Amino acid sequence: MRKIYEPENMMEGELLQSMLASEGIESHITGRHLLGGIGELPVFGLLGLAVQDDEADRARQLITEYNGAFPLSGDEPDSYPDVLLC
């Protein structure tokens, strides 16, 4: 396996892992068990997203496209329930 991306946090890592799985690419989040050591370990570079070597280029391309995507306009609701407008 090859590390292809460093997610900012566990949520981003799991989101990208799910996106890759939907494209048929199996991935693994490295360093997830090190997060409890923050304070003792450096904060950056703990997490990594790894895929099989032969899937690395395609996975990088998908992540780049995902990170460069813009939300579709008009998808936002006019109001959000339980949100206080100030």
**Number of helical elements:** 2
**How much is the average pLDDT?**
83
Q: Class by helix and strand content?
A: alpha+beta
Q: How many structural domains in the coordinates?
A: 1
As an assembly, this protein is single chain
* Main sheet: strand order: 1-3-2
CATH topology: Alpha-Beta Plaits
Secondary-structure element sequence?
EHEEH
- Helicity, in percent? 25-40%
Tell me about the biggest sheet?
A: 3 strands, antiparallel
The N- to C-terminal Cα distance equals 50 Å
Please tell me what the overall shape is.
Answer: extended
What keywords describe this structure?
86 residues, alpha+beta, Alpha-Beta Plaits, 30% helix
Describe this structure in words.
It is a single chain. The protein has helices at residues 10-22, 56-68, and strands at residues 2-5, 27-30, 48-51. The model has no long low-confidence stretch (mean pLDDT 83). It is extended, with a radius of gyration of 17 Å. It has a single domain (2-68), classed as Alpha-Beta Plaits (2-Layer Sandwich). The protein has two helices and three strands. The protein has 86 residues and is α+β, with helices and mostly antiparallel strands. Strands 1-3-2 form a three-stranded antiparallel sheet, with helices on one face. This is Putative signal transducing protein.
